[in-house]
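Box 3.1 A note on notation
Throughout this textbook, protein chains are presented in two layers. The first layer is the amino acid sequence; the second is a token string describing backbone geometry. Keep the layers aligned when reading.
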Amino acid sequence: MFRELTFDFIALCSICSRSGGSLIQRFRYHPVMSWTSVCELQELTPDQGRYVEIGGFELAVFLHHGRVYVMDNYCPHAGGNLGGGHVEDGCAVCPWHHWAFRLESGQLRDSPGVVVKTYPARICEHEGRKLVQADLPIY
């Protein structure tokens, strides 16, 4: 029985990796989301990453062509700090091994099956300050 379960598990993993993980994502928990201020716009340098920790989330924030992008901070390859990276050709580039993740989707440029979680982001004004907000889960 263990051998059959192992084979089934490997087969499922193989199918999920070829489908970009979409089979597993269908059954994931969907938390309640809320727009949360993560930093001030003036703290960002265009095309340079910024590490932000807020509400238990470690995030990488980018300003590229006037738009803001927010994604999980750690590179799935070796745990590199994406917030310490830069933007190149519309991708966040990890400073450790130069893996490049698309700002829009979080997909690895060279292998779409590898993804960093991204969050919807916006710039808003509050009491005269321009803030970067991300739509983050509330736990």
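Residues 2-18 form the longest helix (17 residues). Helices lie at 2-18, 22-25.
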